[in-house]
Specification:
Number of helices: 10
Largest sheet: 4 strands, antiparallel
Mean pLDDT: 96
Order of helices and strands: HHHHEEEHHHEHHH
Low-confidence stretches: none
Distance between the termini: 38 Å
Number of strands: 4
Strand content: 5-15%
Strand order of the largest sheet: 1-2-3-4
Radius of gyration: 19 Å
Shape: globular
Length: about 230
């Protein structure tokens, strides 16, 4: 069992107040310890999730996103992102949907769903909503999913997408360009001994929808496999 340490959150808090290369260089050892702690935590989450899912991501260290901020095209010129973040990819071409986590004092959250579906997948999702919106609403209103995550959200077009009826009863679902579920955690929860299990249980709550979406995105409109 891996536990996120208070020192890890303290490092991120200090980095947010001292976001410069000089301070980071002086505190590189604290960064390394915090990074190792998070990687061990992710390893624990991966192990728990592989009991009910199949992840392509094999280690916490490989899943971590860079802490360095790419400032080339951003107004924010601070050199570091005062957070640890990672993504977990499901294995095989059949299993769809992705998992994400952001660790930052006061802002820790998980997200899962479809963050940037390609045009082909987005069209297939919308066509399924068009014809099977009642099944979508049944899934989205499932007690476990609804009690775990905030309502579905993501970037959306202003009106019905091209080729879809603006008066469709599920036009609000059709408008989405992303399909994301989010859940926040308090710092007290983050530092608790069972936090890895909490994250695992939360991700597990999305599985009925992921299983449905895997079927949708690997078949055509006639239900024939496209793999």
């Amino acid at each position: 069992m891996a536990v996120l340490k208070k020192d890890t959150l303290d490092f991120l808090q200090n980095l947010s107040h001292n976001n410069n290369r000089e301070w980071f260089t002086e505190n590189k050892k604290a960064y390394t310890h915090a990074q190792e702690n998070v990687a061990q935590f992710i390893d624990d989450v991966i192990s728990k999730m592989n009991e009910h899912d199949d992840l392509e991501t094999t280690s916490g260290k490989k899943s971590l996103f860079r802490i360095y901020n790419d400032v080339r095209f951003k107004k924010d010129k601070t050199p570091y992102k005062p957070r640890f973040a990672f993504g977990l990819k499901r294995a095989t071409d059949y299993k769809r949907g992705g998992y994400y986590m952001h660790i930052e004092p006061g802002k820790t959250m998980i997200g899962c769903g479809f963050f940037a579906p390609n045009p082909q997948d987005l069209l297939r999702i919308r066509k399924d909503i068009e014809f099977n919106y009642e099944e979508w609403y049944d899934l989205l209103n499932g007690a476990n999913l609804k009690n775990t995550f905030e309502p579905l959200h993501g970037d959306a077009v202003k009106t019905a997408p091209k080729g879809f009826d603006k008066d469709h009863p599920a036009v609000e679902l059709l408008r989405y360009k992303q399909y994301i579920f989010k859940k926040d955690f308090t710092d007290k929860e983050v530092l608790s001994e069972n936090f890895a299990q909490m994250v695992n249980d939360s991700f597990k709550a999305i599985r009925p929808w992921f299983d449905y979406m895997s079927e949708v995105l690997t078949t055509d409109l006639n239900g024939e496999s496209v793999l």
